[in-house]
Structures are given as structure tokens and as C-alpha cells.
Amino acid sequence: MKTVQKSAKLANVCYDIRGPIMDAAKKMEEDGHKIIKLNIGNLAVFGFDAPEEIQQDMIRNLPNSAGYSDSKGIFAARKAVMHETQKQGIKGVALDDIYLGNGASELIVMATNALLDDGDELLLPSPDYPLWTAAASLSGGTPVHYLCEEANGWMPDLADIRAKITPRTKGIVVINPNNPTGALYSDELLKGIVAIAREHGLVIFADEVYDKVLYDGATHTAIGSLSEDVLTLTFNSLSKSYRSCGYRAGWLVVSGDKKPAKDYIEGLNMLSNMRLCANVPGQWAVQTALGGYQSINELVCEGGRLRKQRDLAYELITAIPGVTCVKPRAALYMFPRLDPAIYPIQDDQQFFLELLQETKVMLVQGTGFNWAAPDHFRIVFLPHEDDLRDAIGRVARFLEQYRKRQQTAVA
């Protein structure tokens, strides 16, 4: 019998946040085991409810949601996004420059499909959010990863970015605040990236989904606000700041000089029309979310639940011998390092699969975020404090046993 094989376009695609380790965890749950999941930023699972005002607006508008909307989205939602860009200082954004999508993820794939030809290159951070690398590959492009320096708080290395630009480079992805590291970029650094994009005629793809999840009084600058000439596509959604992952409500804003990009924008319009429209009920939540009380503030301020859980997770994880971590200034994650002299790991996916099987705690290995060495992992600090203490305690005991087996000394 002739076998049916997956497309060769999937050869370089991975999404280990929901990969083999999650598959193993599902099997363990089916066998009756309780798994503590520190692998994915699904806020609703951990008791972070969507604001009731948003829920009520969706409910009230359900009778108006059975038909298709305009392919770019309903007027009220796009108008709210336009007002948000004005507050952020992004100039020259009209309604036609805004696309509503089924989360930011759909729009990321749409934007890369519209830009990249076979062999074109897209600059991406390492570590990255793996959807970006997957989207570039599926679009026929070549992902090229630039280094973010852990010793410098996970800031992108501008010299490395410059060194990796070739005649085939079409754009650069900036994930700020960053997933998986929790880094927040300075205005000076962002201006440096804008200057590089201007010099080489690159499109900036700005993933700013965590722009309101900020700690310790930090502030976020939208990179689209730093130029009026560099074509910038900014992605955001309700998933994180408004704890509405399942509503699948995201948006894409096109700013900068759009005249030279007329053909590219036509491609975006074609792809937007092809998918007919985004989920209409979710679109009704956008205006209320952006215009109403920003309840994320009480979660990230001093004494807020997210702030306390970040501090606790950081304290517990860095107390483990041989584990270091840059404290995140934003987002929902941290990206600890396992000292290779103490943890000589060869295959980090297998390592964290064994950790899952022994501890019932699910984490994602660093190579799943296109980090080259098997010496990092991402931890999500969304579970309640008791669960965080339990989970990280189990991880600590697993690592202690590993050190004993390897007979590695801790300085």
C-alpha cells in the first residue's frame, strides 16, 4: 500500500511547546496521573479569568455574530485598535491598515506568506517564539537566527544582526516583551534595530503581545512609534493582557511608509480575503478590552498575583545548584540555564521527557525555542504559589539525583 507522507515543507518546522513532551503528558493523564503544566501560557487554566465586561459584550453581541464580518474585521474593533496605536505614538495608521485575526498566530503566518519567496531570509531572535521560525519555513523562506545575549539580559546583539544580513534578507522579527526570556528592550536598542532596517530596506515584524505584562514599573515602547518611514507590522491580541486565549482575537497594524509596499499590502489583502474573516464573537471583545479598565495592572503591580509568582519562581529556580536565570522584566516566562559542567545534557528533549515521567512536571526544553545548546529550558510561572513550590521542588529533587548520577560537583 502506498504511504501518505507529510509535506516536505514541514521538515524544518517544530512547535515543541505542544510537541512530543506534551503528547507523553497526555498519555500519562489518560493513565490517571496529575501533571503540573509549566509549559504553556494558557492563563485561563490557572484561574486568570477574562474580565467579566469583555465576556458580557461577547454574549450580548452573539445574535449579531452568525454572519461573516468584513475580511479585515468589524468596524468597532478596528477603530479601537486605531485609537490604541494613537496612544502608543504610532503615526499614520488608518482603519485600512488594521487586520483582525484568529489570534496573532494566524496573522503572523499570513504576513510571512505574503512576503517570502523560496530562499528569502527572515531574521529571527534566538531564542525565539517557535511559531515565527515555523511560519518562515512554511512560507518557503529561510529562518536566520540572530543572537540574544544572556549576559546582557537577553538583549539582541546588533552586530550579530548586521553580520547576518544578506541580499536575500527581507525582514527582521522583534519579540518585545520577549517570549521565552521575559526580556524588555530599551528605546536605544529598538532605535538601533530601526536604523538597521532602514539601512537595508527590511520590514520589521513586531510581536508585542505582552506589551502590558510589565513588572517593577517598567514601560514598553512600541517599535512602530520610533519611525514613520520603516515599514512595520505590529502584532497583538487579547490572549495575554486580557486572559482571553480561547477567544482567538488578535490584530495586525501596518505602519511606516506604505507606498513602496503597495504590492505587499495587496498580498496581505488577498490572504485576508481568502480566509473570509476572523472569529466574529471574539472581535466584539476588542473594543471593550482596549477601552476599558486595564485589569492586568493589578496582577503585575507589587502584591499582584503575577508579580508574586514571578518573584517566587525566580527565587526557587535560582536556589537550585547549577541553575541561573535572568530575572524577567515582562511576560509570563523565564529561561533558566543549566550549567553544562554540572548538567552535561546531550539531548534536552529526552532529558525533559525523563523529568516529566519521574516528576509529573511538564517543561519545554530550550532547543524547542531555537536555542542551539541543550542547556536551557522555559518555565511558565502561572500556577498558584503552592503548585509552583511543589513543581519546582520536584524539579530540584530530580536535578539533585541527576547530579549524583553524573557525579558532578557544585562549586
Automatic annotation (TrEMBL):
<comment type="similarity">
    <text>Belongs to the class-I pyridoxal-phosphate-dependent aminotransferase family.</text>
</comment>
<dbReference type="InterPro" id="IPR015422">
    <property type="entry name" value="PyrdxlP-dep_Trfase_small"/>
</dbReference>
<dbReference type="InterPro" id="IPR015421">
    <property type="entry name" value="PyrdxlP-dep_Trfase_major"/>
</dbReference>
<keyword id="KW-0663">Pyridoxal phosphate</keyword>
<dbReference type="InterPro" id="IPR051926">
    <property type="entry name" value="Ala_Aminotransferase"/>
</dbReference>
<protein>
    <recommendedName>
        <fullName>alanine transaminase</fullName>
        <ecNumber>2.6.1.2</ecNumber>
    </recommendedName>
</protein>
<dbReference type="InterPro" id="IPR004839">
    <property type="entry name" value="Aminotransferase_I/II_large"/>
</dbReference>
<feature type="domain" description="Aminotransferase class I/classII large">
    <location>
        <begin position="34"/>
        <end position="393"/>
    </location>
</feature>
<dbReference type="GO" id="GO:0030170">
    <property type="term" value="F:pyridoxal phosphate binding"/>
</dbReference>
<dbReference type="Pfam" id="PF00155">
    <property type="entry name" value="Aminotran_1_2"/>
</dbReference>
<dbReference type="InterPro" id="IPR015424">
    <property type="entry name" value="PyrdxlP-dep_Trfase"/>
</dbReference>
<keyword id="KW-0032">Aminotransferase</keyword>
<keyword id="KW-0808">Transferase</keyword>
<dbReference type="GO" id="GO:0004021">
    <property type="term" value="F:L-alanine:2-oxoglutarate aminotransferase activity"/>
</dbReference>
